[in-house]
């Protein structure tokens, strides 16, 4: 079976020009694969570069060396060298990213925030909202809040809106950055179940989770990022 | 692909700048700028005052002639033409129909003493609309889209607030369904709350109408919310370019790092 994500020798260094050009090596020699239907959990202490790797796979951080091959639209594309237009097309059709924090657009209703990834992929608005509503209900966001913009919600509610937005689409790759961090036990269980469904549907996932119990429940494989840490 | 009889090809650039330069005597306002803009793509040009952003916008929109280099635009028939070789009629067509230009100061883009409805209707009449009822209906539906109360349709924009004027200017520009819009600091000079509303409105319109846009701004938050791609200018040159979130979250050049680190936390 072909890998959905195939990372080979990827590396990242920050150069801080405002601090006299200090070089801050983040990771080097990052190599692993993720197949369809598989959830790989990145492990290692905080500051070791887990989130940076996730951001590199999303094209948010630039990759200074190596390859990040993504299976997109039946072909392999090296994200490390892709044009902005290609990265945008990959994000629309292939890779979803659930960040720790919701970057809310002012004035947009919660239900539309969640439905948006479907709408950009040409799903009709009523159907997109219907599916958004199902997920929000599943994640225990009361219906009276759906018409409000999420910016006034609590941290946990915002994260659940973010999860709904990340899980609504049928993208073949999902990147999860601490999806359960500020959730209570009941909602954590819902997220575990949603991840299980995605696996079943053949979605390739890379996740960062600090909670051991959740990791045991979702990980098919653990990749220890400590071995990629570039800091001396 | 064809849409309303217009050739739409998303793999062909709409606007291409090829080594554009503009000098005023010994002063270089803009040097060697090249890029391609595709249909539906929003490009933000960021940099401080005097970095050459507005000069670039004027070169791209044929308001200034370049000292060197070329700008070409894909006309509705699918053929890309050098702006300098266009005839007067073709140039007028671009300005009146296929392009929009949103000024920072709405007074430059509006006629302040005639009614809001006439401001929007005028662009339609310029392209041959002559039925009063149709013009008024279309103008009202556009005022509604930019969230201006229909009761104000007969008032002149000089009686409007700054935010309303800017929304009216946007309606006037978009009523002819342009494919490309140039915006020069569209939210400059507005209160923060008014800015947020305008940005949200522009973001929706751009995606609904699949507009391509070049947005000049010194406000990185505007670039983040509105654009797909960013070009950072300094001293007339493009010093860094890339996907918007990539340039803002992982800036490489010293000047870009300075710009990003200078944002005050809310």
Task: Give a quick precis of the structure.
The complex is a heterodimer of chains A (232) and B (266). Chain A is of the alpha/beta class.
Total beta-strand segments of chain A: 9
What does the radius of gyration of chain A come to? Answer: 18 Å
What number of domains of chain A? 1
Within the largest sheet of chain A, what's the order of strands?
6-7-8-3-9
For the sheet with most strands of chain A, the description reads:
5 strands, parallel
Spatial order of strands in the largest sheet of chain B: 8-9-10-5-11-12
Under the CATH scheme, which class of chain B? Alpha Beta
| Count of structural domains of chain B | 1
Q: What percent of the residues of chain A sit in helical stretches (DSSP H or I)?
A: 25-40%
**Structural class given helices, strands, pairing of chain B?**
alpha/beta
Per DSSP, the total helix count of chain A is 7
- Strand proportion of chain A, as a percent range, falls in 25-35%
Distance between the termini of chain B: 45 Å
Would you identify the CATH H-level superfamily of chain B?
Answer: P-loop containing nucleotide triphosphate hydrolases
**Mean pLDDT across every amino acid position of chain B:** 91
Q: What is the CATH fold-level name of chain A?
A: Rossmann fold
Beginning-to-end CA distance, first to last residue of chain A: 37 Å
Order of helices and strands of chain B: EEEEEHEEHEHHHHEHEHEEHH
Unreliable spans of chain A: none
């Amino acid at each position: 079976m072909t890998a959905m994500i195939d990372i080979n020798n990827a590396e990242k260094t920050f150069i801080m020009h405002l601090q006299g050009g200090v070089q801050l090596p983040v990771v080097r020699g990052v190599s692993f694969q993720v197949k369809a239907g598989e959830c790989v959990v990145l492990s290692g202490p905080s500051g070791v570069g887990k989130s940076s790797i996730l951001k590199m796979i999303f094209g948010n951080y630039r990759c200074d060396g190596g390859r990040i091959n993504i299976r997109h639209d039946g072909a392999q594309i090296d994200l490390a060298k892709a044009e902005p237009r290609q990265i945008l097309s990959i994000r629309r059709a292939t890779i979803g990213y659930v960040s720790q924090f919701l970057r809310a657009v002012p004035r947009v209703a919660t239900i539309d925030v969640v439905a948006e990834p479907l709408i950009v992929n040409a799903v009709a608005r009523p159907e997109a909202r219907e599916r958004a509503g199902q997920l929000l209900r599943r994640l225990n966001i009361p219906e009276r809040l759906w018409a409000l913009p999420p910016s006034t919600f609590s941290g946990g509610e915002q994260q659940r809106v973010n999860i709904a937005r990340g899980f609504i689409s049928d993208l073949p790759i999902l990147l999860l950055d601490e999806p359960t961090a500020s959730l209570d036990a009941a909602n954590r269980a819902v997220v575990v179940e949603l991840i299980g469904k995605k696996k079943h549907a053949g979605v390739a996932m890379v996740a960062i989770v600090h909670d051991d119990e959740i990791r045991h429940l979702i990980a098919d494989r653990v990749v220890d990022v400590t071995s990629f840490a570039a800091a001396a | 692909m064809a849409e309303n009889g217009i050739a739409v090809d998303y793999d062909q650039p709409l606007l291409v700048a090829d080594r554009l330069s503009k000098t005023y005597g010994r002063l270089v306002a803009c040097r060697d700028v090249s890029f391609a803009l595709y249909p539906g793509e929003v490009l933000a040009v960021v940099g401080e005052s005097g970095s050459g952003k507005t000069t670039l916008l004027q070169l791209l929109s044929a308001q200034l002639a370049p000292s060197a280099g070329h700008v070409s635009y894909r006309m509705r028939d699918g053929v890309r033409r050098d702006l300098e070789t266009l005839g007067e009629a073709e140039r007028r067509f671009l300005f009146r129909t296929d392009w929009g230009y949103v000024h920072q100061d709405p007074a430059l883009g509006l006629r302040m003493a005639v009614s809001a409805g006439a401001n929007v209707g005028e662009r339609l009449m310029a392209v041959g609309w002559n039925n009063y009822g149709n013009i008024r209906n279309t103008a009202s539906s556009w005022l509604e889209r930019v969230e201006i109360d229909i009761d104000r349709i007969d008032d002149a924009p000089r009686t409007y607030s700054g935010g309303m004027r800017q929304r009216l200017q946007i309606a006037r520009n978009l009523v002819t369904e342009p494919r490309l819009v140039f915006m020069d600091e569209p939210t400059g000079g507005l209160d923060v709350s008014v800015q947020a509303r305008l940005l949200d409105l522009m973001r929706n319109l751009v995606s609904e109408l699949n507009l391509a846009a070049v947005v000049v701004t010194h406000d990185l938050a505007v670039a983040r919310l509105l654009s797909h791609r960013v070009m950072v200018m300094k001293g007339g040159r493009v010093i860094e370019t890339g996907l918007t979130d990539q340039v803002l979250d992982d800036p490489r050049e010293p000047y870009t790092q300075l710009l990003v680190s200078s944002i005050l936390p809310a």
